[in-house]
Amino acid sequence: MKYILLMSGTKAGVEGYHAWSKQDIDAHMAVLHRINKELADSGEFVATQGLADPTETRIVRGEKNGLPVTDGIFPESKEFLLGYWIVDVANAERAYAIAGRISAAPGPGGSPTNMPIEVRRFAIREPQSH
Amino acid sequence: MKYILMMNTMKAGQGVPAWAKKDLQAHIAFMLGLNKELHEQGELVSAEGLSFPDQAKLVRAGKDGLPTTDGVFPESKEFLAGFWIIDVESPGRAYEIAAKVSGAPGPGGAPLNMPIEVRPIMSGPPAEML
Amino acid sequence: MIKKLDGASEHLLRELAPQVLGAVSRRFRDFASAEDAVQEAMIAASTQWPLQGVPENPRGWLIQVACRRMTDHMRSEIARRERETAVAAEAESLSPTLQIEADMDPDDTLILLFMCCHPALTPSSAIALTLRAVGGLTTAEIANAFLVPEATTAQRISRAKQTIKASAVPFRLPSAHERTERLPTVLHVLYLIFSEGYASSIGAHLQRLDLAREAIRLTRNMKALLPDNPEIAGLLALMLLTDARRAARTGPDEELIPLDRQDRTLWDRAEISEGIELLTGALSQASVGLYQLQAAIAAVHDEAERVEDTDWPQILALYELLKRAAPSPMVTLNHAIAAAMVHGPAKGLELLRALDSEPRIASHYRLDAVRAHLFEKMGDHEAAMQHYRIAAARTTSMPERNYLMTQAARLAGD
To answer: How far is CA C148 from the centre of its chain?
Structure first.
């Protein structure tokens, strides 16, 4: 069963992260890397991606005169996607356990960031045979 | 260059759209046709739909290594309904594809002009992520 | 331009794979390493045979290459450990491939099937390992079929082999008693491969491997080795009777077409005949297993040339048997549909109410989908639409979601 695990944040949150000590950032990344390696070892890894700063984001709403209508303004308080993991697991509980570990990755001073991780199941492209 | 196109169009408690049959069929055919076209042009890396928000879960690290899981989200939250990962020659082409997706037909055959979020992503996860 | 193997050679390669693996595993008494070595030999074949032609003794060729890989591996192991061992002596005096071929046992494929469908493995691991070791598919082909990265599939297979190695199961046919115990797991894995493959029949442009065909091939091979086993015959019959409908199952826009609306002229009558013949043979034996029961139900559907000719009382009777033999929410659902066809939709709805108290099924999309169908038959379009839409929001399958939304829209009228 494929799940996507979504980590989101606000501009303020990201700025806060950039203000962590190098030590804290390294510790945080080390835990995420370890999780990724464990997922590869367990055969559950499908994909992971960290997303760029939202200044590169565009929202496209249809087209006008043959050109896409784009908007690059991101409200301060709006949550945006920071990154995701795609995993292929035996059941939902396993997906939640992985999400829990991501959420437990350490923040400043070593305590868990406790970031909420949204867990969504993929809609599969095939019908179920019955 | 790789981009992720995100369709954040689902709201909590919302069910499937109650459109007329021919409008529904036109919409489905449009999306299938678009994916096929992108695939044939070698621009489609992946296209995935997600299950509905009532199955979404939010996971936090919790205390003592026990993650907490709940389905409580802000009422105004726009859930990710699906995403495309595309590999294209230029940002312009990415916005063009997003505009097409956005303009998918809805009720009465009119373009929906859904907001499609376009974010650049790296060509693959950084080596140390694996 | 890389030359690729033609279809016939590819098929030959897959057929030979388990035979080669059996021979090499037996010779070196190391299934896990042998499996890697055979994989390498297969890859060598698919690159070299298109250029040099298929060798006169393709199996011997594969055994030879696999053995070379094994000894290379062992020599580097020895060099690493810097010790002379009995293994080193053996490696030096390796018998020529003729000897190995002569030691081959026709039961090797069966041994491999039991080994790969080890009860300690998760279904997805057993499936991946079986497809590679017994099916002769490449890691890339398997990964593509299940839409996961190749590295993930390779890792699953590697871990599966480690589990098997740790269990120290010897390379021999399990005893008759063990076979009886282990057979359900093997059949279950084969059935899962088929289901996955059958479900993937749409989206041909995605060029995914025909897993359903692979499952049928493997089950056929198993049946050839255990010809008197009625459950294997039953499983093969079920696969053929289901696969026979494949062409009619999806429309031109990849939309799902349910059984009662399929163009039956598109059904493969040859597969249906074969399925029925197999089933007749299997049912003539004393015990009636689950696959035979399911195959019997499929046979009743497939025998009806027009949907209105469907013998629903017989299907109902078979579901009643299935309900007693292997009760499950899905069986209850299907039984309710059959009861509705025989006794009317109200009866079906009544039977479904029993499922509301079962947590496993109460929020499952199929319950709402079947309710919707029955409400429609009763003429209650409002309730039908409502349940179609609930089901659409609950299913995790996109084609199902599209189908269910379309049914609701159809009832809304326009």
So the answer is: 18
Look up the domain containing C53 and give its range: 1-104
Residue ranges in chain A whose pLDDT is less than 50:
129-130
Contact between A51 and B117 using a beta-carbon 8 Å cutoff: no
3-state secondary structure of A9: strand
Q: What integer pLDDT is reported at residue C201 of this predicted model?
A: 45
- CA C64 to mean position of chain CA atoms: 31
Backbone angles phi, psi at A82, to 5 degrees: -95, -35
> Residue A108 has which token pair?
């400043």
Task: Give C397's DSSP letter.
Answer: B
Report domain extents, chain B. 2-52+72-122
Total structural domains within chain C: 2
Q: From the first residue on, what is the mean pLDDT of each consecutive set of 10 residues in chain B (130 residues)?
A: 94 89 93 92 92 94 86 90 94 96 96 95 51
Q: What is the mean pLDDT of residues C333-342?
A: 95
Task: Give chains near A: 3+ CB pairs under 8 A.
Answer: B, C
Look up the CATH superfamily of B2-52+72-122: Dimeric alpha+beta barrel (3.30.70.1060)
* Nearest-CB residue to A40 (from C151, C200, C397): C151
Chain A nearest C-alpha distance from B66 (Å): 8
For chain A, domains (ranges, CATH) are 2-121 (3.30.70.1060)
pLDDT at B85: 94
* Cα–Cα nearest to A48, from A93, A82, A83, A7: A83
Q: Residue C352 domain-assigned?
A: yes
> Which tokens hold the place of B113?
């002009």
Q: Contact C19/C108 with Cβ under 8 angstroms?
A: yes
Q: Chain B residues with CB inside 8 Å of A113's CB? A: 61
Q: How far apart are CA B95 and CA C24, in angstroms?
A: 55
| Tens-place pLDDT, residues C275-318 | 999 999 888 776 788 999 999 999 999 999 999 999 999 999 99
Q: Which residues of B touch chain C, with CB atoms under 8 Å apart?
A: 15-25, 28-29, 32, 36, 39-40, 49, 51-52, 54-55
- The ipTM, to two decimals, is 0.89
Name the helix (H) or strand (E) containing C110.
helix C108-116
Listed residues C39, C74, C104: the one ending a domain: C104
What is the DSSP-derived secondary structure letter of residue C173?
A: P
Is the CB of residue C133 less than 8 Å from the CB of residue C35?
A: yes
Structure tokens at C193: 């491969």
C408–B18 CB contact, under 8 Å: yes
